[in-house]
Amino acid sequence: MKIYLARQPIYTKSRSLYGYELLYRNSEQNFFPNVNADLATRELSYNVLSEFDFSALTGGHMGLINFTKEALSSDLPMLFHPSNLVIEILENVMLDDTLEERLRYLKSENYILALDDFIDDGAYDSIIPLVDIIKVEYGLLTDAKRREIGQKYKASKQLIAERIETEEDFKSALHDGYSLFQGYYFSRPTVLSKSTVNIASSSYAQLWREASKESPDFDVLADIIKADVALTYKLFRLINTPLFYRGNRIASIKQALILLGIKETKRWIMLLLLRDFSKQENDQITKQALTRAVFMEKLFDCMGQSSLAQTAYMVGLFSCLEVLMGEENALSALASLEVGPEISEALFKKEGILHQALNCIQCYEKQQWSTVEAFASAQHLDEQLIPSLYVQALSYADEIFAAQQAAPEDKTN
Questions:
Q1: Which domain, by its residues, includes 159?
Q2: Among residues 188, 201, 229, which one has the least CA distance to residue 25?
Q3: What is the pTM of this model?
């Protein structure tokens, strides 16, 4: 599956880069599709946080994202670090006391607030003191109106002139007091895409039940996440972003959750669950990955190498990434996760005891008994151990995926 977004640069008076507006896309078509605005905000935020590298997207500059009223009222903005996010308040957001209090809170947490498509009709007067940036659709207002806004606010706010399409527009906006500029004159939005993996529907159901609790349990969440290759991948992607990365090599899923913290973990899970459920699922491939992971973990315990059991589990779980994402994408994905050289060595260099064990279960799946018997003999294992462990692992995976009874529409209850 591919995911998409677009970015459009914003420039200063001297034509140096200020940042990028990040825009929702769901295909290579470079326009906003006819989708619900709340869904677009959630999906874009999710992709920026869990799939793309926010710092790489913006090059360390500011990233501007549109937020609906629902998104502003949720914890969604708090998933981003305030140092490089500009929260754009959409022009159709209806203010009320609750939302204004929420905006005051975000301001107190050092988030930068911007008003989008501002026309200065009095509708947002009550929050003007909270706002740092005012965006004006420069090409859609009269000369008198955009000049009036520029003169009125240039001393107290940063003013972005949008829809700058010609050199004349740029010079006019400069003269009117605008300090930042965006539009086709500088650059059209550029669509970016990357491959990703789907989360199994059974994992959604279990995560929803646990995350809905007032105090989710780390151990329960770790067990659910470790059963799903896509969830594990997305968690490691998140924990390796600049917002959470602390230079630690992550040895287990529970360690990643502890570093993330229960508050951020719950926000991340809820964000996952708010995504659209219409995408194709990969339950069978994910089930195979889980079976391999459990088999590998049990095998290394039985081999007296418990210190490698967790790493073996990860090797088994990530062994299906190539099928889910393609070889090149899987290799680059694992390289970005900082999961340790043993995993990449086993999966791609095809070396070491971890690779030998993975090859054993892969051959068992294909009924290539001679290779399985050779591994068991080399490791001095009872010939019945491998079939027994495989049955245990398969039974465990069957039980996990039996939790698939919750339908997508039930997950908003």
A1: 2-194
A2: 188
A3: 0.62
